[in-house]
Amino acid sequence: MIMLYCVCLQGVFLFCWVPFFTINVSNAICIRYELFDVSAICRIDPIAFSLFTWLGYVNSFLNPVIYTIFNNEFRRVFKSLLCSWKRTT
Questions:
Q1: Hey, is 60 helix, strand or coil?
Q2: Left (φ > 0), alpha (ψ -120 to 50) or beta: where does 48 sit?
Q3: What is the C-alpha R_g of the chain?
Q4: How far is CA 70 from CA 25, 42, 64, 77, 78, in A?
Q5: pTM for this prediction
Q6: Which ranges constitute the DSSP H helices of 1-89?
Q7: Whole-angstrom Cα distance, residue 64 to residue 70?
Q8: Which residues contact 63 (CB under 8 A, 6 or more apart)?
Q9: How far is the C-alpha of 41 from the C-alpha of 5, rounded, in Å?
Q10: Which of 4, 12, 56, 75 could form a disulfide with 20 if both were Cys (CB 3.0 to 4.6 A apart)?
Q11: Per-residue pLDDT tens for 48-62?
Q12: Are 66 and 12 in contact (CB under 8 A)?
């Protein structure tokens, strides 16, 4: 179970953040060496850039979901936090 948890957590992390860092590093290289006219990889669609940025942000949403699925203690505390917040409002 722990192995599945680690693989799931790392897989989601890599899926969400590798495109973000790849596109940002390549963009920084293109800016530094002025390669926008030379290389097709430097002409990144703004929608793709935004999508990959938001994919990185989605990881922040998925982490509590993954922790809740695999960790009973986290699930219990998370539920108590949500329920206590619900009572105070």
A1: helix
A2: alpha
A3: 19
A4: 33, 40, 10, 13, 13
A5: 0.73
A6: 2-32, 46-70, 72-88
A7: 10
A8: 9, 12
A9: 35
A10: 56
A11: 999 999 999 999 999
A12: yes
